[in-house]
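Structure request: Molybdate transport system ATP-binding protein, Albimonas pacifica.
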Amino acid sequence: MLSVAIRHRFGAFALDAAFEAPPGITVLFGRSGSGKSTIVNAVAGLFAPDAGRIEVDGRALFDAAAGVNLPPHRRRLGYVFQEGRLFPHLSVRRNLLYGRWFAPRKVPRAEIDRVVEMLGLGPLLERRPGALSGGEKQRVAIGRALLASPRLILADEPLAALDEARKAEILPYFERLRDEAAAPVLYVSHSAAEVARLATTVVALQAGRVIRQGPAAEVLGDPSVAPTGVRGVGAVLEARVAAHHADGLSELDAAGDRLFLPKVLQPVGATVRVRMAASEVMLSLEPPRAISALNILPGTVEAIHDGQGPGTIVSVRTRAGTVLARVTRRSAEALALAPGLPVHAIVKTVAIAPEDVGGEAHAAHQEPAR
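Returned structure:
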């Protein structure tokens, strides 16, 4: 468990943030300039805040009142940067083993083999970084951090420098890291899709302050938070893979409602998270007929959140969970939308992208095609 409560001022910017990061991946989520990287740098020991305390499992890394400020090399942290920052003259194997020098004890061979298997690094061990893709370099960087036996792993926008194909390659490995690694992960992102797939806990930041903390479904589904603006608002639903069909679609069971998605990697029976962007959801007062959209979720209007522009966010309670729809105020008035009104939420299958679906990482794990 990581506990952070710090205050610091950089000119006109004031950071005043307090939160706890339990096991799994805790994502610091917000717009550029909200204080995400500043918090990570404080945890890493790259600067001393004006006031506050940072501790891992009850051990103080920083305590302004007690005069405690451990240097970075004594904090037992693993750090994954935007770029892999591997040693170009060393093989993947030797880059991985470099992490052992920072471990408090000799890392057993079985642990090295486990990390190599978890991250799919076996075929890469004898290569040098110059022969690796961006996603492969990041996997090696994660492995090096893990083999330092850290109390905590810091990941500062580790996918920001990758194209969409490389992001899709590495996201399942971060899911495995979330599900299998002993050390908690503090992860910085401004991508709602990344947060929906990876986060165990979300800490939403705005102008240096924590505005909400909780599970991804709760934070991303709160229109009043919207760290990345209304276009980033969306619902996160959990569903079970029910079938894979010959036409390339996967059928999901979302608490009794059916969802059809482009084929997912997870096998039948696996639990997945599905992010539905509010801008892709339509509302109907009656069950739609003769319509191309396959996903129709009956529900009831919970709340209506008006913004400053012509749009509004409508929260709809369905059996699968809360779904958000972004519609114009004119449409909301024409339909006389109000809390308690029965409606149907409609979303096209092709509107849900592969990066919007994640879940049991060990089930989805596979070697990328070469």
